[in-house]
What we know:
Blueprint: E1 11-18, E2 21-28, E3 33-37, E4 49-52, E5 56-62, H1 66-69, E6 81-90, E7 96-105, H2 108-123, E8 131-136, H3 145-159, E9 163-168, H4 174-179, E10 189-194, H5 196-213, E11 231-236, H6 242-248, H7 253-261, E12 266-275, E13 278-283, E14 286-290, H8 291-300, H9 308-320, E15 324-332, H10 351-365, E16 379-391, E17 415-421, H11 425-433, E18 447-459, H12 460-465, H13 471-483, E19 496-498, E20 501-502, E21 508-519, H14 530-535
Bound molecules: adenosine-5'-triphosphate (ATP), ligand LY3EYVUO and calcium ion.
The ligand CCCCCCCCCCCCC/C=C/[C@@H](O)[C@H](CO)NC(C)=O binds near residues 292 and 310.
GO molecular function, one term: ceramide kinase activity
Protein name: Ceramide kinase isoform X2
InterPro entries: ATP-NAD_kinase_N, CERK_C, CERK_PH, Diacylglycerol_kinase_cat_dom, Lipid_Phosphate_FormReg, NAD/diacylglycerol_kinase_sf, PH-like_dom_sf
Amino acid sequence: MERLPGGRRPRLVSSLGLGRRSWEVTLDEERGRLAWRDPRPPRRAGENCFVPISEIISVEETELNKKQRNIGKWQKMTKLHAFTVYYVKKARNHRWRCSDVTFWCVDEHLCNQWIQALKELLEMQKSRPKQLLVYINPYGGKRQGKRIYEQKVAPLFSLASISTDVVITEHANHAKDNLFEVNIYKYDGVVCVGGDGMFSEVMHGLVGRIQKDSGIDQNNPKASLVQCNIRIGIIPAGSTDCICYSTVGISDPVTSALHIIVGDCQPLDVSSVHHNNMFLKYSVSLLGYGFYGDILKDSEKKRWMGPMRYDYSGFKTFLSHHYYEGTIAYQPAKHTLGSPRDKDSCRTGCYICKKSEQQLAEQHKDCGLKHEEGEEEWKVIKGKFLAINAVNMSCACPRSPKGLSPAAHLADGSADLILVRKCSRFDFLRYLVRHTNQDDQFDFPFVDVYRVKSFQFTSKLSEDNESNVMDIGKKRFGQFCRDHPACCCNIVNSTWNCDGETLDSSAIEVRVHCQLMKLFARGIEENCKDEAAYSQNSAEQLL
Ligand SMILES: Nc1ncnc2c1ncn2[C@@H]1O[C@H](COP(=O)(O)OP(=O)(O)OP(=O)(O)O)[C@@H](O)[C@H]1O
Ligand SMILES: CCCCCCCCCCCCC/C=C/[C@@H](O)[C@H](CO)NC(C)=O
Ligand SMILES: [Ca+2]
């Protein structure tokens, strides 16, 4: 379509057949949408429909089948030309489906004009991936990864003309190691089919590779890491699928495939975890010590149980009611606008995350003037904890639809540090139950939550036995030990659950890297009334 005088974007308007009737179909580039409306008087007309061009998956010339051809007596004599538009149909609870509508006309030239105009507009959607590298963990979750990909995802990728290189992993770390070897730069994105653990592996491969190629030493806890612009797509096929659920709003392979196809982009905060100047892991969802660390440790022995292992180990861990003594030092996240007790959650286009993005861009501009983190204020807390959870995002998942910290942000450069102090079993149960209902899980005297940009933890046991985490920690923690010499603490350490992987060290140093990576997602969309307007009146209902 050519530009109109005055730079206005053109409209293509035609009367096209849809089912048995003629509809007024408009391709409105200005408003970025394809719309079709029944031109009959309002009382007799069907409802109007529209699809944003950004949510059209593909357009194809179509041969009308026998049923579709039986659309009117006179048309039987004439050759009909048709095209089908495949588009995203939004259903309830953030679920997306691929729907289609077929338009016909007798004029071959008009039909081709429509196909060409739509294809040109799709070509202009520059954020859409053309080539993807896919890793499938055949053993994640209920071991359905390969079937899910082949039956639900691959046909959609092919419909959208996305070419793929597929690797079915043969062992743990296969995907991660592979990402250090292949030419990642020829891909528009990497897709992982599996759970949080599989995502973590792919993220480590990709983020690690970018640091290596940029000459960044990951072992330096103070290093400014280089942002990874190759997006990761998650096709959920794991046990918890918390990262997918927290960034899309549902754990559903078809929905995730469609977010990849339309080229969504959601930046994500990533925490680096170090011990004694040695890089341990990155975390994007949960870093949990105590309750969640113990669940993970126990559940790893029961992998054969599949996703049920978390319920079994969760119940066992709850009954054991272990608490752990240690010291936490954290730097509050003063740069962010939000607080963990906010009523509003992070949603698509979140202004708090946008603000952090602007701050990050400014920091990159004048990196020389950046504040030294060591100079900023540290707060220290010592105590006996049932759980210490640091979350970079809400950690919503099917088990806990609002998550461990409902107001946490995906891309604000901070984590919510949740400290659950020693309390009775009954109180801890009340706390856990609030993860599953609308009540405020932070409204307990034994629960504290802080928005932080970095923190350190050392257990009482390692304070006593090991050399300390780092010099700054040595001074701070040492001071507390002298102040409170003897206390009756639990004598064993827990382990850290880092996005579903156990860490070897209990003494850790954690730093949040604002928007270090990007996902094929758009955050959780607000449930808006408009949503139903174009989704529920899909053309097939009218045929
Ligand atoms: N072929 C393989 N054989 C064994 N382990 C694998 C293989 N491929 C990947 N893995 C490892 O399996 C671990 C768990 O996988 P994944 O996250 O997909 O499933 P899950 O643990 O059931 O789900 P979730 O992490 O959501 O709880 C990952 O950490 C990954 O490193
Ligand atoms: C008696 C009612 C108890 C209900 C407790 C519900 C709380 C569930 C919250 C789960 C949040 C999980 C956060 C995500 C962690 C993942 O990184 C990890 C790997 O998939 N999963 C687990 C379970 O550690
Ligand atoms: Ca965050």
